[in-house]
Amino acid sequence: MSATLEAWTALPLEAWQDTYATLHMWAQIVGKVRMALAPLVNHWWNVTLYVTARGLTTSPIPYGPRTFEIQFDFIDHKLVVWTSDGLTKRIDLAPRSVADFYGEVMSTLHALGIAVKIHATPDEVPNPIPFAEDHAHKSYDPEAASKFFRILASVDSVFKQFRGRFIGKCSPVHFFWGSFDLAVTRFSGRPAPARPGADAMTREAYSHEVISAGFWPGGGEIKGPAFYAYAAPEPPGFKTQSVRPKAAYYHGGMSEIFLMYDDVRSAESPEAVLMDFLQSTYEAGANLGKWDRAALERS
Fold it and tell me: How large is the average pLDDT for residues 170-198?
């Protein structure tokens, strides 16, 4: 099997729904450790995870005179914690409850001399269960986790090429553990109008005009893994703009343009189709929003 076919592997949502739900909670636990200790960065960029050659990492987190890093290794199926003074601890990624995983993560950090208190309840999910009480989510299929990682690695590569075309303010390509999606966001450079009733988290995230794109395993009305793009604030006419490829569509309830992952995966060149989606949705939002594209884009 070629590297391209292996990378853009099939992963139907229903085939790993339980593992996805458990891994989402595990990622929130690790992400909240970073959130508790890393200095605030605009738009909450200090809380995200990043794709590595083996999985997802917090990147180095400062802790007094030391630093430490936590990585999900989806090849050997371990959660690895490294410290700058040469200590390493590993936790098995295997079928186990969120409560058990949470307890071992916190005890492992304590054994490494890292004291951290997190908000120990998940965010951005319906009916959240405190981590220490969550015995419902306990699935882990290593093959599904490996497939998800290979998809993330392929998407991350294309997103980074897309990001390199933009010389204005732009987010890293990063993984949001709350919504469980990989995203990259471009900024016009202009402040955005205040959102009535927005909470502090949302106000910080959308303080400036953005056009964002990402990849998500799916859920709710989106019945499988999908790419998305949106503009905030959304300029008039965005929902009716013609974007590429033809399979892309605007979802009125979510105010986003979606392209199903399987439409990309099955293409002769998934990379080219994904880049076309990213570029055409960006152009639709930037043109309608009257962004200064000449100043923001690499010629």
Answer: 96
